[in-house]
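ugh ok fine here u go
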Amino acid sequence: MGSKETSVGPMNEHDETLEIFFAETEDLIKTSEESLLHLESAPEAGPDLEELFRAVHTLKSGSAMVGFDHISEYSHLLENLLDRLRDGKLPITKNLISFLLEAIDFIRDMVDKCASGDTSIEPEVLETKKAQVNRFLGMEGAPQEDAGLPETITDIPGKAEKWYYYNIDLIFRKNLFESGIDPLLLFLNLKEIGEFVEVVSDISEIPRYEKIDIYKLYISWRIILKSAAPFQEIENVFMFVKDDNNIEIEEITDRYKDGIDLKVGEMPIGEALVEKKDISKNDLENALKKQKKIGEILVEEKKIDNETLQTAITIQEKSRTVYRKTSIRVDVAKINYLVNLSEEVGVGLSRMQSIFSDEERPNILLDLEQELENLLKINREFQERVAQIRMFSLEGTFQRFQRIARDTALDQNKQIKAIMSGTDTELDKEVIECITDPLKHLVRNCVDHGIELPDERVEKGKSAEGIIEFKAYQKGGQIFVQISDDGGGLNIEKIRQRALEMEMEVPDDEIDNKTLANIICNPGFSTTSSVTKISGRGVGMDVVKTAVEKLGGFLAIETAKDKGSTFTLAIPLTFALTDALHFKVKNISYLMPLWGLVGTERFDEGNMRSFGGDEKLYNFRGKYLPIMDLSRVYGRETSNINDQGEIVVFLDTGRQKFGLLVDEVLDCRQIVVKSLESHYRNVKGISGATIMGDGSVALVLDLFDLEEIYFNKHSV
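structure:
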């Protein structure tokens, strides 16, 4: 890129905008060239074409914003041409690739001239270049001999576009015009890549007429945009203004069905009018104050006294709180699927009834067996679909925590960027309710204790902006939710000193992650000397650990000095339905979740090694693993460990591997786990119970509790 002469003295905002534009343009031109070369080797629509389209679109938007209209106009024509390629209406040929490379070179030449201070261009040259693009677009332009391009274009049917809906809040700084930026250009750029569903202007900041400064911007906007463009492309429209202005973009596609915003139907009319800026919040509050509630009317008419009214209100509020936690909204499609399955059950039962009524039917037992197998298959699918009704994605939960992280950082003058992955991971609604508070604390903990102040981060060679990452993924029958930061990490020595002050057991050598988790999750533990609204009260991590373990999960912590910390919650996928292994010990039925099963094998005394009275290791696939006797754990008659009829079941909780001695392995089945605590009392190592087919009750093992019983020698 050509050199740019600058005058001596401070750079004004317009010069800064130009510097940003030239730097960005250089990268965009490089990206365009790389994408074109990749397309030449693999000429098909895909990620490379999308990358090229985004680069040219950003070139168009950026050049228009800084006033280089000739670059913007030419880039706009190229964008239209690339759009035909994306839709499959134009084949990708070597001739076309060569032309596009020349077009990118032409843009580079125009940018270089602008960088050197010469923003002019010969009209004939620009019109000739435009005509070449128009020829590809099938429009009238320069003669073919001049352009050297084909006369006809063959249209190829394209795929139906997927539409997205975006909520865009635009609050600009009042001196925006001083930087040479016109917000109307941003509106035009948005209009080119989508359709305005709704545009709401907020004029509440406009002062009285005599105080208006015509060089200041007082209006802000909220836009609902319908577009086929991905999120990144929408974000690129605001590339040159997003750093200094409050620009918030949120995809809200899930809120729309058949072009209708479902959220509006849930709103009271007053809130809907406020959102559309037809009235202000004060207007609504004043109107509501004039309304009399039914309770107030009854008190005025002396039908009831005020104390009776307040008692009824308190009861109602408690009821509503419980109702919100115990009720869920279900998509109609899921209900329809269950209705279809119930119809299949009815058909299956009718077939069985028909078989029973035909006494002379040949092979009646075989027919009954087939119909019963079909009904069992339908019943299993029915159970799985019912369990899915309780499942919700973590996207909404993560978005709430993103806001919490932002507000916490703002209060502490810290800069953060939130990254989310695995937001489509689904969890049982009850589980989400239970982990919301623990996760909320971990988010605040990462910002408060983890992320450093901007100056401190820069001194360490980091970017001033810290990273908070929310991640979720499924592994087996468990969901892992991680919250991590790239801050300073936990201060191990400070934690050790505080633990010793609290007379806790601390190893003399290096503290490992498991020991670290046990220390900081102790009730009352805090390394913060001063009490703030976020920390210092010694309440938090112990609540997190307790809540997670109550769900049958565990909390793991990893930390590294100046690299950050990661908090991992491992929790069961659902409370409703679980695949389990059925086995017996001393004629008592037990079930254990299949996600923790590694393997089973018949007991072989030659594979066992004893260390002391109770320590026994068993060689399983080349590794010696500790084995546990359930009879000893629950105080029943001890098994004869040399009994050749016994079977060893090997488990892996994700933290430890160990084996269980059992008498008999029966089968695998899908079970509904019922709470033992609500009907009897909490028993360590037992997560619940289920009713078997013969009416008997089988206990469901909690693998994390069993691990703690064995490795930490806790009593039941």
